[in-house]
């Protein structure tokens, strides 16, 4: 884990390790407010506090990676923190290319709003050109109405845009996985069917639940 230092005090987890990967926490902003998001009840992921005082610069991200790799190799570097990485698209592209030159595999975990957030840009094409190898896209619903209810996007017609984004990823040759949270009422079969039709993989993600409050123990 690498934490930036502000006024001599440790703050802002930028890089953290989990599942054999190094994850990058670039922003806390997001274009969704999902009803099931762990942000609804915590800023902790894998035991790391991912709340940011300020968004890291490219130089801070690269420095965080250098420190993180001192602890050994990683399977992938994954753009996935407490917000939507494509809100920091230029930083993602720069760091992806920096990692490609070092022959380090990269993956983007995204809500699929990349081209909505960056209008006029060929986001998927730019990611591919920078050297991105894999992408995981949060679909979460098989139809637009359910998607809007669950994910509460800031854009209209976002569900269609998510599917279009994933389709472009497949067409660009990125290893593409669509995901959906396994929760009561979830149409996992419908989401899997969409992924299959696009030529992508599908994975159900476990539902993050708030910790259960423990009853106070009496001291005797």
Keywords:
220 residues, alpha/beta, 8-stranded mixed beta sheet, globular
Q: Can you put this structure into words, describing what you see?
A:
This protein has helices spanning 58-68, 89-100, 114-117, 123-130, 144-151, 158-171, 188-198, and strands at residues 2-6, 9-18, 21-24, 44-45, 48-49, 77-79, 106-110, 134-138, 175-182, 201-206. The chain is globular, with a radius of gyration of 18 Å. The longest helix is centred in the C-terminal third of the chain and has 14 residues, at 158-171. 31% of the residues lie in helices and 23% in strands. A hairpin with a 2-residue loop joins strand 1 (2-6) and strand 2 (9-18). The protein is built from seven helices and ten strands.
Alpha carbon gap, first and last residue: 41 Å
Radius of gyration: 18 Å
Q: Helicity level, as a percent range?
A: 25-40%
Give the strand order, joined by hyphens, for the main sheet: 1-2-3-6-7-8-9-10
Figure out the total of helices: 7
Brief summary of the model shown:
This protein is an alpha/beta fold and 220 residues long. 31% of the residues lie in helices and 23% in strands. The N and C termini lie far apart (41 Å).
Please give the structural blueprint:
Elements: E1 2-6, E2 9-18, E3 21-24, E4 44-45, E5 48-49, H1 58-68, E6 77-79, H2 89-100, E7 106-110, H3 114-117, H4 123-130, E8 134-138, H5 144-151, H6 158-171, E9 175-182, H7 188-198, E10 201-206
Parallel strand pairs: 3-6, 6-7, 7-8, 8-9, 9-10
Antiparallel strand pairs: 1-2, 2-3, 4-5
Helix pairs in contact: 2-4
């Amino acid at each position: 884990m690498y934490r930036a230092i502000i006024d001599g005090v440790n703050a802002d987890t930028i890089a953290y390790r989990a599942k054999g990967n190094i994850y990058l926490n670039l922003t806390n902003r997001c274009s969704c407010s999902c009803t099931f998001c762990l942000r609804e009840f915590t800023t902790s992921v894998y035991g790391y506090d991912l709340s940011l005082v300020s968004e890291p610069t490219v130089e801070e991200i690269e420095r965080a990676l250098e420190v993180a790799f001192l602890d050994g190799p990683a399977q992938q570097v994954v753009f996935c923190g407490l917000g939507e990485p494509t809100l920091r698209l230029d930083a993602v592209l720069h760091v992806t290319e920096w990692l490609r030159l070092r022959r380090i595999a990269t993956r983007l975990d995204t809500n699929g709003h990349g081209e909505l957030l960056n209008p006029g840009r060929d986001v998927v094409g730019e990611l591919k050109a920078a050297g991105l190898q894999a992408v995981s896209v949060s679909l979460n619903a098989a139809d637009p109405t359910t998607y809007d209810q669950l994910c509460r996007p800031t854009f209209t017609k976002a569900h269609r845009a998510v599917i279009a984004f994933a389709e472009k990823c497949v067409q660009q040759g990125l290893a593409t996985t669509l995901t959906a949270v396994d929760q009561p009422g979830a149409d996992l079969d419908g989401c899997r069917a969409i992924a299959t039709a696009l030529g992508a993989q599908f994975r159900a993600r476990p539902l993050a639940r708030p910790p259960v409050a423990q009853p106070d123990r009496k001291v005797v």
